Amino acid sequence: MINAFVRKLSGLADLAEDDVATLIASTSQVRQFAARRDLIREGDRPGPVFVVLSGWACRYKILPSGTRQVTSFMLPGDSCDLHIGILDEMDHSIQTITKASIATIPRAVMEDMLDRSPAIGRALYAAQLIDEATLRAWIVSMGRRSSVERVAHLMCELYLRLQGLTGMVSASVELPVSQLLLADALGMTPVHINRVLRGLREAGVMEISRRSLRITDPAGLVQVAGFDENYLHRRLKTIKSIY
């Protein structure tokens, strides 16, 4: 059965039928996790490659003060830590946000796939490069964008990533994240996040309600964020085209 991981990699490289069959077999070991469960913690020995087949997860670090910084959101089809096995220990933690189906690919199986299939290797490396480009965009947001721009930029990014999962264009997408989690991702307080979201809603560009994001003025939101989706390197329509 084609899963989100196979669909994602198929969009990043030309995979033969044997490649698809190999990827399906490699993700056959699936575990169900409840929300807010750590898959692995900072300081742990690296384990298998985790692949999100359904649900949401995030990477995060805990500071000495006890505060948390979320460094990325992981959506269905995303994998993590392709080469972390060469290190002695994890330098960050990974936790589910919602209930999630997680496939685990043993290191030996992953290395064998990379050796046997150049196409799978290209797709995985492309996915990793996109992750790194996304992290750079987050660094720019944290360092140079205002709080309003920062929130708007993340909403544009998540909208495009979520649209890419279905291939369908809609003004609304599911967004199962709390304001506290958004605050941890954007380096803001929950009170400040609430104020910014209210301002964006009053400006008529977007609104978040009942675990969903609705973009009411795509061009306006893009302008507020100064958003350019080139860093996602996806074959997607731009956010401005949803109307």
CATH superfamily of the largest domain: Jelly Rolls
How is the biggest beta sheet arranged?
A: 4 strands, antiparallel
| Shape by Cα distribution | globular
Number of self-contained structural domains:
2
Mean pLDDT: 92
In CATH, the topology of the largest domain is named Jelly Rolls
Order of helices and strands: HHEEEEEEEEHHHEHHEEH
How would you summarize this macromolecular structure in one to three sentences?
This protein has 243 residues and is an alpha+beta fold.
Describe this protein's structure.
The protein is of the alpha+beta class and 243 residues long. 42% of the residues lie in helices and 20% in strands. It is built from eight helices and eleven strands. It has helices at 4-10, 17-26, 107-116, 118-144, 147-166, 179-186, 190-202, 218-225; strands at residues 30-33, 38-40, 49-54, 57-62, 68-74, 79-80, 93-96, 100-105, 172-174, 206-209, 212-215. The strands form three sheets. A four-stranded antiparallel beta sheet has the order 1-8-3-6. Strands 2-7-4-5 form a four-stranded antiparallel beta sheet. Strands 9-11-10 form a three-stranded antiparallel beta sheet. α5 crosses α7 (190-202) and α6 packs across α7 (190-202). The chain is globular. The protein starts with a helix and ends in an 18-residue tail after the last helix.
